[in-house]
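Quick note —
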Amino acid sequence: MPLFSQGLFWLCLLVIFGALGCLAWAALQLSRARAEDGRTWAWLPLSLHAGWLSLAAFLNLAQSALAFGWTREDAQLVPSLLLFAAAAALLLELNRRMRGNFAYAAAALWGLVAVVAEQSRSALPGAGVATWVAAAIAALLAAQTLWLRARQTRRA
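Predicted structure written out below.
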């Protein structure tokens, strides 16, 4: 927040995406090791934080682009769809690598539900499309998580 208030947009992006990279790496490592040695107390908070930040980083980027005049309020749909696509790719890939990490998915789903709620109340052009895109990403992530967990249970 101090960086954003000072107008240090690029530094803000570096910090948030750097934090995302570190948390995602830690959650991946702990997701792999958790089954072997019971690292639940480290796995759970890092997975939740990584799931939340996997979406929040892209939402922050969208807000920053609007605040710094890179996009206009009346023409946000195309940039929003590109950011949704990037966020969806990251969410689905990390969830796949973590083999359906419920904590990671739950935090991301919580954020996506908030996006759906906010966009459904918005009168801005393209808000309806953004609502459906966020809902579709949430449905895909939930379905992927359930499928990965079911597949893992069958293997055990």
